UniProtKB/TrEMBL annotation:
Keywords (A to Z) from UniProt: Calcium, Membrane, Metal-binding, Repeat
Annotated InterPro entries: EF-hand-dom_pair, EF_Hand_1_Ca_BS, EF_hand_dom, Miro-EF-hand_domain
GO CC terms of this entry: ciliary membrane; plasma membrane protein complex
Protein name: EF-hand domain-containing protein
Length: 134
């Protein structure tokens, strides 16, 4: 009988599946601390450290700035972040699974753990949305 196959991360046309995209968007948002829609160097470093154990090396940073979508400050946008994962996933889906699992996703792309965020509540929804309208 069939083996347990993880969800496909890409579709026939090579694009990321909506489920995969949603998970990656949630990860992006977690690292976009100032919520400006792009990862500054500090934010990107934090992401890389949590994902790979170290910041991106020069070559990787050069590739990012040369090939991916950046904002006017030269920071990686959500679009660029998804491009990065689309590229990686087309060639090495297992790498993307590794990253997703690092960030708390299981093989069904459900968030089962949150990485080093003890104070996070279980909703996992944007906990920075504090509105002081009074
Ligand atoms: Ca940011």
């Amino acid at each position: 009988m069939p083996l347990v196959v993880p969800l496909a991360l890409t579709e026939e046309d090579g694009g990321l599946t909506p489920e995969c995209e949603a998970a990656l968007m949630a990860i992006f948002k977690r690292y976009d601390v100032d919520n400006d829609g792009a990862l500054s160097n500090t934010e990107l470093d934090a992401f890389a450290r949590d994902t790979n154990g170290d910041v991106f090396d020069e070559d990787t940073l050069t590739e990012i700035t040369e090939f991916l979508d950046l904002d006017s400050n030269g920071h990686l946008t959500l679009k660029g972040f998804l491009q990065m994962y689309n590229l990686q996933t087309s060639s090495e889906p297992e790498e993307t699974w590794k990253d997703l699992q690092k960030h708390g996703y299981d093989t069904k792309l459900k968030l089962v753990a949150s990485r080093n965020e003890d104070n996070d509540d279980r909703s996992g929804i944007n906990n920075t949305a504090e509105k002081s309208s009074a």
